[in-house]
Write a structure and sequence with these properties.
Blueprint: H1 2-41, H2 46-57, H3 61-73, H4 77-91, H5 96-108, H6 112-125, H7 130-140, H8 145-158, H9 164-174, H10 178-187, H11 195-207, H12 211-224, H13 229-241, H14 245-257, H15 266-278, H16 282-293, H17 301-317, H18 321-334, H19 340-355, H20 359-379, H21 384-398, H22 408-418, H23 426-446, H24 450-463, H25 468-473
Helix pairs in contact: 1-2, 1-3, 3-4, 3-5, 4-5, 5-6, 5-7, 6-7, 7-8, 8-9, 9-10, 9-11, 10-11, 11-12, 11-13, 12-13, 13-14, 13-15, 14-15, 15-16, 16-17, 17-18, 18-19, 19-20, 20-21, 21-22, 22-23, 23-24
Length: 476
């Protein structure tokens, strides 16, 4: 009877063993999803419920690590540490992912030395797992990027299939050492790079103004991920820099309309405007610059000033000088410290505007230019000669027959500024010759003051011995 009983039990067990084991295995694998959901809900008896999950999985290091990681991501480092240590107990300290979590916890607390120790233990537990090497290098880079890369080079011996040079490039990139990052990335095989390294490689090349290489890398990334926003953006930016405007607009369309999870900044709209300007689509460029000014990250005067200047340039390109001048003035007001060139730019716009007008409207534009050059001379002593020279020319435009002598005081001032110099360069000589020419003509014709005209003629011959006008005035 006993034998029959045992045979019956064995048969019954055999009949259900496969299904029971499968159910247990499925239940154990499903525990990870259940625990993640439990952690997200944060019930009052979470610790109590977790005890049952621990008992059920205490020999399953993978699940214990998954529990630990879920707690870490929920910023519950105490439980994350506890379950990582459970995983180490289950494996007799041979669980690299558990050591990595413990390292992550220390790194989160800004304890770089402790974090590096745990990452080193992860490497010892599993020398072929690249994560330990990379995380060690990532915390050590703050101390020494070169030392961090040296640790990565140890991985090369264990895993020749991994793009170690790309990881080195990543470390240097994160340390803002772009020259070293670029050199490291250049050694790596792009086909083995992760997406983020391809993106950083292209960005590094872009920062270094190696636009051809940046475009090449971005296009390689797009061959794998055509809807990747970062690759489309980099292809767009670098095509714009390379003046390949048709290609740039194609990639811009891909970024704005055919990329996954793309978020846009003022920089994107600004580059879109630049590409449209290059493609001679000025009106659309103006629309993009206006959109750039409305973006949330347009958060300081310097950013705003740059785009307002581009708006001014776009209106100038259309010969819409009223809007060009309006935006240029806005640009100057947005600048903390406008340069001499900035102030000269406004005067130049007034001059260009005047050249398109006539009569009183033209005179008004030239008077505005004169005022702008006067402002330049007042604010920048080193620009006095240039400003005075341009005021002479502007006033000469308003008095072409010299009857009013509007340019006279400025040409005389220019002679005072440049004449005493002992070492005249070509610019000095050109400005003096123009000044002497005006003053000779003014005194000889308008004032009939031949003596003064002759004095200027003699000065002219001193710097231009073959000047025919000066010779005629002197009766030579």
């Amino acid at each position: 009877m006993k034998a029959i009983k045992y045979l019956f039990i064995a048969a019954l067990t055999a009949g259900f063993s496969t299904a029971a084991l499968a159910q247990e295995a499925t239940g154990t694998a499903a525990d990870v999803a259940v625990v993640k959901n439990l952690i997200s809900q944060k019930p009052a008896d979470l610790d109590k419920q977790m005890k049952s999950f621990y008992k059920k999985n205490k020999k399953n290091a993978d699940n214990l690590v998954a529990f630990s990681r879920a707690f870490f991501e929920a910023k519950d480092t105490a439980n994350a540490k506890m379950f990582a240590n459970y995983a180490l107990e289950a494996t007799k300290n041979k669980c690299a992912p558990a050591f990595i979590i413990l390292g992550d916890i220390e790194a989160l607390g800004d304890n770089g030395g402790e974090a590096a120790t745990f990452y080193d233990q992860a490497i010892y537990a599993d020398p072929k797992n690249p994560e330990g090497y990379y995380k060690y290098a990532n915390v050590y880079r703050k101390i020494s990027p070169a030392g961090a890369v040296a640790k990565l080079n140890e991985l090369r011996q264990q895993r020749p299939d991994i793009a170690v040079d790309a990881l080195a490039g990543r470390i240097y990139y994160m340390s803002n050492e772009f020259d070293k990052a670029f050199d490291a990335y250049n050694k790596a095989d792009m086909s083995k790079m992760e997406e983020r390294d391809l993106s950083d490689y292209a960005m590094t090349a872009f920062f270094k103004q190696k636009y051809d290489k940046a475009l090449e890398v971005a296009k390689f990334g797009l061959s794998k991920k055509p809807r990747h926003a970062a690759f489309n953006r980099l292809a767009f930016f670098n095509s714009t820099e390379l003046k390949k405007y048709d290609d740039a607009l194609m990639y811009a369309d891909a970024l704005f309309n055919k990329s996954d999870s793309a978020k846009f900044s003022y920089y994107d709209y600004t580059y879109y405007g630049n590409a449209l300007m290059g493609a001679k689509q000025t009106d659309k460029a103006i629309e993009m610059y206006e959109l750039a000014l409305k973006q949330e990250d347009m958060d300081n005067k310097a950013k705003r000033a740059g785009i307002v200047k581009q708006l001014s340039d776009a209106y100038r390109d259309k010969e819409d000088y009223l809007n060009a001048i309006k935006h240029y003035k806005d640009y100057l007001e947005s600048m903390e410290k406008p340069t001499a060139n900035d102030l000269a730019g406004l005067a130049g716009l007034h001059m260009e505007h005047g050249a398109t007008l006539s009569a009183e409207a033209q005179a008004e534009a030239f008077r505005n230019a004169d005022a702008a050059y006067a402002d330049l001379a007042q604010k920048f002593e080193q620009a006095q000669e240039y400003a005075t020279f341009m005021r002479a020319r502007v006033n000469g435009q308003m008095d072409p027959d010299q009857s009013k002598g509007l340019a006279k005081p400025f040409y005389e001032k220019l002679v005072e500024l440049i004449g005493p110099k002992t070492d005249l360069d070509n610019t000095d000589k050109a400005r003096l010759k123009e000044s002497y020419h005006y003053l000779i003509s003014y005194y000889f014709i308008q004032k009939n003051d031949k003596d003064t005209a002759k004095q200027y003629a003699q000065k002219m011959l001193a710097i231009d011995p073959d000047n025919e006008i000066a010779k005629q005035v002197l009766g030579q």
